[in-house]
Amino acid sequence: xxxxxxxxxxxxxxxxxxxxxxxxxxxxxxxxxxxxxxxxxxxxxxxxxxxxxxxxxxxxxxxxxxxxxxxxxxxxxxxxxxxxxxxxxxxxxxxxxxxxxxxxxxxxxxxxxxxxxxxxxxxxxxxxxxxxxxxxxxxxxxxxxxxxxxxxxxxxxxxxxxxxxxxxxxxxxxxxxxxxxxxxxxxxxxxxxxxxxxxxxxxxxxxxxxxxxxxxxxxxxxxxxxxxxxxxxxxxxxxxxxxxxxxxxxxxxxxxxxxxxxxxxxxxxxxxxxxxxxxxxxxxxxxxxxxxxxxxxxxxxxxxxxxxxxxxxxxxxxxxxxxxxxxxxxxxxxxxxxxxxxxxxxxxxxxxxxxxxxxxxxxxxxxxxxxxxxxxxxxxxxxxxxxxxxxxxxxxxxxxxxxxxxxxxxxxxxxxxxxxxxxxxxxxxxxxxxxxxxxxxxxxxxxxxxxxxxxxxxxxxxxxxxxxxxxxxxxxxxxxxxxxxxxxxxxxxxxxxxxxxxxxxxxxxxxxxxxxxxxxxxxxxxxxxxxxxxxxxxxxxxxxxxxxxxxxxxxxxxxxxxx
Length: 563
Hints:
The chain has 563 residues and is α/β, with parallel strands linked by helices. 42% of the residues lie in helices and 22% in strands. It is built from 17 helices and 18 strands. The strands form four sheets. A six-stranded mixed sheet has the order 12-14-15-17-16-18, with helices on both faces. Strands 2-1-3-4-5 form a five-stranded parallel sheet, sandwiched between helices. Helix 11 runs antiparallel to helix 12 and helix 15 packs antiparallel against helix 16.
C-alpha cells in the first residue's frame, strides 16, 4: 500500500532563523517545507508549485504579509490556499481583522506554541490532501459514469469491474434507484456506516441511515431531478448509533433511473473548526476580562485610601469605625481578586518559579463562590511547598480544567479534596510533585475509560467540548508530566481521583506547617487494576503509597475512603 503524496507548505519570512524554527516545528508532519525570504520569491514559487498552506510573517521589508495575501487571493488558482499569519508585532485586534479580510484562515501571535501551530497546519494540510484526492476521484468517476452508464444493466462483468474500481475509493460511494433502494454499496460505505454490502442491498438508503436533510427530502429530490445534481451536508446515523455530518454529492443518471452518491465524513473537520472559533472567542473574552479588571483596580486604590483617612476622622464613633473597617476589608478582598484576574493574562515569555500550593489557592479562591452555591465542601491538604519553573497560565489551565470537571460532577453537592505531596515516578526514577483532586461526584463509567483523554470526547453530552482533559494532557507532556485517574464505588458511594504528576529536578521538599503526612494503614482492598478502570469493592485497587502506577496512591485512597 503506497503512502499518501506529500503536500507542499510554503514558509514566508525574511528572517532565516524564524524559517528554521518553523521547519523544526512542522517537520513532524512529514510534508514538503518550502522556504521563501521575500514576497516576490513566494509568488514565483506559487506559480510553479501546488501549495496547500502558506505560513507567513506580517512584517517583511519589501511587501508586508497583508499585501502579499491580497496578491495571492486575486489570482484564481490561489483563492482556496490556506493562509496563516504569524506576528509578534501586529497583535492588535485591528491587525487580526485586516489579516482575516486579506483572506487568512488564522492569525497566530508570537510566542508560537509548537503543538498548536502543528495541529492547525495539519488540519489544513489534510483538508487539502482530501480535496485533491476527491477532485481526482470525482473526475475519474464522472468519466467512468459517462462512459459506462449506458451499459450498466447490459453486462454483469462490466458492473463488477466498475464496482471494484469504486471500492478503491476511501469515500462512501452508493448507487440507488429513484425511489431510494440501494443498488451498490462500496467498501468505503461499509467502513463509514457499519453495514455490509449484503445488509444494505435493496434497503431504502435514507431510512437505513436516518438521514436529516438541510431542507425537506422532497425539495432535495426535486432539485436533483431539475439540475441533475445536488451537493450539501447531511446528518446521518451509523450502525453503532453515532450521528455524523456528511458532505454529499448526488448525480442523477436519467437513462438508468439511478442516482450516484459520493459521501465523505466531515464531522471531525467541523468540530475542529468550531473548537478553533471557540478558542478565539475565549481568548477575546479573557482579554476583555483583563481590561475590566485593570480599570476596576485603579478606582479601588483611591477608595481604599479614602477609607484609610475616613477611619481616623474624629467624627466617627466606635460603631461607625467598625463598619468602616469591615468595608475596608471587603475592598481589600476585591482588590486581591482583581490582581488575581490580571495575573491570568500577564504571561511571561520565560519560565518563572511557580509554587504549586499558591497556584492552587489562587484558583480555588476564584472558584469559592461557585463551590458555595453548589454546596461543595472544600478540603485542602498541602504536604509540601514544592516549586517548579514553568508558565503559570498553562498550569492554571491544567488544574482549572480538572477542578471544574470535579465540581460539575457533583450537581447535588459533595466533597472536593485537593492535596499536594512529594512523589516519585518509578518508571523514570524522577522526583516530583503530585497534585490529587478527589471528588464525591457521579464517577466515570468504565466504558468511557479508554476515551477520556481523546479530543472532542465528553461525558457531559452537549454541555462539554471534549477538549479540556486532552489539552491538559498535552500541556503536561511538555513538562514531561502525566495525568491519570481512578474512579470507584465503595459502600454505595462514588469517588473519583485525578492525579497530576510533574517532575521537578533537584526537588527540595519543605514540609508545610499546615499538617504532616496522612497516616498509612493496611486496607482490605482487591488487587490492583489497570489505570482508568473503575473498581467496585475497594479503594483504587490497593495501590501502595509509594507506588508509581498511574492513579491515586493508597494515602490518597485512604483520604477518599474517609470522605
